[in-house]
Amino acid sequence: MRHPNIDRLRQMRLYGMAKALEELDHQPDAASLSFDDRLALLIEREAEERANAALAGRLRRAKFRQQACLEDLDMNPARGLDRGVVRELATCRWIREHRPVVVVGATGTGKTWLVCALGHQAAREGYSVQYTRLTRLLDGLATARVEGKLARELRRLARLDLLIIDDWGMTELTAAQRLDLMEVIDDRHDRRATLLASQIPVDRWHAVIGDQTYADAILDRLVHNAHRLELTGESMRKRAAAKASEEAA
């Protein structure tokens, strides 16, 4: 009856249980396990299989630009990273508390890598995440407006546990873009967590947004009570290129 049971489990999409049952067939001491022990093994494997599938789905939907995780984070003191702050962010408490995080630094200092690593950690903890560049976010909202789907897209963004916006402030915003951005930020304020990465210092963000009233409203919601990380040091890309050149020599 073992093979029909495996087939039935697969038909019911209990793939973890099916795999565990197959493995039991090849374990010489399986017969010594009690019914409860065998059942617990099957349930544990099914739970593990579902958790892995759910994580894979969250990572796929997040659309991270880089595959990064905090375990591989370069904590070289020259980068200006505070171990205590990084350790706190790794707990994801800031997401549960709906607090923003702002990462700034010159080009090549590893901002995108860091925000993707923080997003990966959030996905591992079960949170829904999306990574996007600011220009792509605003283009998507403009397209949604033309197609009559803006309200639906805003609701989708508002439901995300963590929204990561990279390349913040690279171009001055238009009036329509300011309005769309205000909608996104206001929907998330004190309700969901937002993570920004920018090579533009925070004190220049008002000029980028372009309108004093909108700038005050948007930045008050993003910068107030935010965790801030300022990356320093030489370009990580240059370091990687120099290392590759040395290894090739």
TrEMBL record:
<protein>
    <submittedName>
        <fullName>AAA family ATPase</fullName>
    </submittedName>
</protein>
<dbReference type="InterPro" id="IPR003593">
    <property type="entry name" value="AAA+_ATPase"/>
</dbReference>
<dbReference type="InterPro" id="IPR047661">
    <property type="entry name" value="IstB"/>
</dbReference>
<dbReference type="InterPro" id="IPR027417">
    <property type="entry name" value="P-loop_NTPase"/>
</dbReference>
<keyword id="KW-0547">Nucleotide-binding</keyword>
<dbReference type="Pfam" id="PF01695">
    <property type="entry name" value="IstB_IS21"/>
</dbReference>
<feature type="domain" description="AAA+ ATPase">
    <location>
        <begin position="97"/>
        <end position="230"/>
    </location>
</feature>
<dbReference type="InterPro" id="IPR002611">
    <property type="entry name" value="IstB_ATP-bd"/>
</dbReference>
<keyword id="KW-0067">ATP-binding</keyword>
<dbReference type="InterPro" id="IPR028350">
    <property type="entry name" value="DNAC/IstB-like"/>
</dbReference>
<comment type="similarity">
    <text>Belongs to the IS21/IS1162 putative ATP-binding protein family.</text>
</comment>
